[in-house]
Design goal:
Number of strands: 11
Distance between the termini: 44 Å
CATH topology of the largest domain: TIM Barrel
Helix content: 25-40%
Order of helices and strands: HHHEEEEEEHHEEHEHEHHHE
Number of domains: 2
């Protein structure tokens, strides 16, 4: 059983709370603390009794904490984060600001098994899937780091809560992420359950409340995953990495094309559009 509270929906947290002999409404405090206040230490949640906080810790429950190893910010405000996971593995996220939105590109796996010729992460050996909590933590961590602190984090391996608090009201606030794209390191549909769970969490109205039409899953073309997603009760937008006009050329660039030829992929895409009414985007590397 995954004990990371960051990877649980309010309904999941209710089960945890009730299972420990508490009233289920306390789950709402937990969810808000993690996903609205960006809290990371159970001990800091003063709305829960000290005894219950201690009980959560005794039972092995925790809130995951990504470590910022590096953060590079461009003049346009875009930022690339290198995160270290609890087991020492590393992943990346990229924040892309525009006038009316801030889009965060999320990783879903450590390394990638797809081996696409045009993708840098395709050359990084696949190590493991991320948990739902580790995926969500990318959002919560970026939303907790003010722009002026990104460069300050470089080289000091800052963790949320390690930085000193400034009372300078002129300092910019941490960004509110408005859009999510699952297209960082890894193939999202090969980590289906964790990705879907993370979408439910970030979409929830009691938390980050990122609209489902502002969430896009980018896939290299995992046909069974596309069809399965079409039958869920929550439907993000879909982006297909096509990258070639023919099966022959696509197979040279993307090994997955040998398993799922273009005709089969396009059929799955049409099914997704028909069942969900969601927009599907095709990505093409020039």
């Amino acid at each position: 059983m995954d004990k990371d509270l960051q990877g649980k929906t309010p309904e999941d947290l209710e089960k945890v709370v009730v299972g420990l002999g508490q009233k289920k409404y306390l789950a709402g405090y937990l969810f808000k603390f993690i996903h609205v206040q960006n809290g990371r230490e159970i001990a800091a949640l003063s709305t829960l009794s000290k005894a219950f906080r201690a009980r959560l810790a005794e039972q092995g429950y925790f809130i995951s904490q990504l470590k910022i190893v590096d953060a590079l910010t461009d003049a346009d405000g875009s930022a690339k984060y290198l995160f270290e996971l609890a087991d020492g593995e590393r992943i990346e996220s990229v924040l892309l600001p525009e006038e009316d939105r801030k889009t965060l590109c999320l990783s879903t796996q450590v390394g990638c098994p797809m081996g696409c010729a045009f993708c840098a992460t395709g050359r990084i050996p696949f190590r493991r899937n991320l948990t739902a909590g580790e995926i969500v933590d990318q959002v919560n961590t970026v939303c907790s780091v003010p722009p002026q602190d990104r460069q300050a984090s470089v080289g000091c391996e800052a963790r949320y809560g390690d930085r000193q608090t400034s009372h300078d009201t002129s300092r910019a606030a941490a960004p509110r992420v408005t859009n999510l794209v699952y297209m960082g390191m890894g193939e999202p549909l090969l980590n289906y359950d964790a990705v879907l769970q993370s979408i439910r969490i970030v979409n929830h109205s009691a938390g980050k409340n990122i609209g489902i039409r502002h969430i896009t899953v980018s896939t290299s073309g995992i046909v069974p995953g596309i069809k399965k997603l079409a039958d869920e009760d929550i439907h993000p937008r879909l982006a297909i990495s096509l990258s070639a006009p023919t099966d022959a050329l696509r197979s040279k660039l993307m090994p997955i094309a040998d398993r799922y030829p273009m005709a089969e992929l396009l059929e799955a895409v049409r099914t997704y559009q028909t069942k969900t009414g969601q927009r599907v985007t095709f990505e093409y590397v020039l």
